Amino acid sequence: MITYLQPLRESIWLKIILVTLFSLLSGVIAYVILTKYITVSPYVAACSSLAITFIVSVIISKRVADQAMASTNLLVRALIIGLDDSPEIEKPDAKDIIKPSREYLIKLAERAMDINVAIKSTNQAGLSKMHFYQAVADSIAVPIIVVSSKQIITYANNAAIKYLELSPEKIIGQYFYDACNLSFVGGSTLESWLESAKDGSNKQNEIWERVRLNLAEDKRKQFDLAAHYIKDSDKDIELTLAFFDRTLHYERDDHDLSFVSLAVHELRTPLTIMRGYIEVFEDELTESLNSEQTEFMHNMSASAQQLAAFVSSILNVARIEENALYLHLKEENIKKVLEEACKNMQLRARVHDKNIVVNIDDNLPTVGIDKVSIFEVMNNLIDNAIKYTHTKEDITVKTTLKDGMIETTVSDNGIGIASNVIGHVFDKFYRAHKSKNSIGGTGLGLYLSKAIIDAHGGTIWVKSKEDQGSTFGFTVPIYSDIASQIKDSQNKEIVRGAHGWIKNHTLYRG
Ligand code: ADP
After folding, report:
1. Residues with Cβ within 8 Å of residue 149, at least 6 apart in sequence
2. Range of the domain at 268
3. Per the structure, how many domains does the chain have?
4. Which of 51, 318, 394, 435 stands the most exposed, by the fewest C-beta atoms within 10 Å?
5. Cβ proximity of 242 and 141 under 8 Å
6. How far apart are CA 393 and CA 391, in angstroms?
7. Residue 152 lies inside a defined structural domain of this protein
8. Cβ < 6 A, ligand 1 pocket
9. pTM here?
10. Residue pair 445/425 in contact by the 8 Å Cβ criterion
């Protein structure tokens, strides 16, 4: 027991003894008076004195109980006032209780009454802290959105509300995929990443470039998106998103591209005529040219071919942008297709003192591909292998059957790609910093190749080590695996669209 309460305990204890003694004494006195002076029978005297003992003990015990209860009553009142439960309770007063432990109990009561003030000031501090954080988040010019585990937007700062061009009620409390209609370039969307982050197969932070926000009346914004996934948050914050607006920057690229694609389109006819003449000259003049002139002719032919590939790439990228690039998958002999693609590039390789070594397994099953598009992919991969290899070493093309798909790899021993940029090489317009200025290019070849391979239902990948070389690989499906998708039995082809922009949400209702 708390030492301060000892005196109270002792005083109650003493009072109980006194009550007992006093009641007994009053009983005995009553008995003596009744038998000696009033001379009633001993039986009546005993019963009466027992009754008197009982009545006296009840009266005095009640008084003692009241005094003992006074301290409990005082503390309970103080607590009720302190917790602000019932403000009409009368304040405890020092005179309400008797002496023992009085100072201590009064102090305790005063402290109890202060609880209320303490709670209020803590709440006040919490509230002002919250207001402070809210003001900080609202003063950040970057749009920030918080999404719950049920995919509901629980917070959007001022910048986000302005950026989404919706009223706060149409954002906060709404299903995220309804409020934000996003499209991503390539296969990785916020939704697909979130799924993999949740099951632990992907990292908890992700950044996407060139994300498109589709607004009303065909208005669009483009931005880079940073997302952070929080597992089992006690505040039900599952996802925080920050939008870095790059609309002006990316639209400039898009305008440039549409202008370039218009201009490039005009190059097609004269280029085809020029290539035709070069072929005629090569056929007709081979005998009469000396070795230097033959080399000039080869250079001319290789350059015309490179220009044609460039024209085709630009036009196809523009088509991807509009989701208007369609591939026609047909049954093809992959060995034949790839050998032809390599033969087309052999001249260019030779002009750059390189050799393409082709190693394609015999007896591979037929594949379902769009031949012209696969030529384009091979052109890009081999062209890169030539461009980014500064030595005379061979470029190796290998094709095998792997995990039910046909896999082709193009390997070089060139400058390789640094590990910190390798994740970006398939992005639109991406060019690795080191080679950007010294080697010509557009940063579109691998983006286009990926869109083509994705549309085939295959995958494209890269393995590379700086200064040691790179291997790019892609897969295409075996024809018998996709033959059931042929709709037109006359044409025997499957039409697939190559998508530049993938909707973020498969169930998007907008
Ligand atoms: P580019 O027109 O710049 O070659 P690509 O889309 O074909 O555009 O390639 C993107 C970037 O990837 C290139 O700028 C280059 O830095 C890197 N790259 C592609 N292929 C190779 C390779 N075989 N070796 C080294 N780097 C490569």
Report:
1. 236, 238
2. 257-321
3. 4
4. 51
5. no
6. 6
7. yes
8. 380, 384-385, 388, 412, 414-417, 425, 430-432, 435, 441-447, 470
9. 0.58
10. no
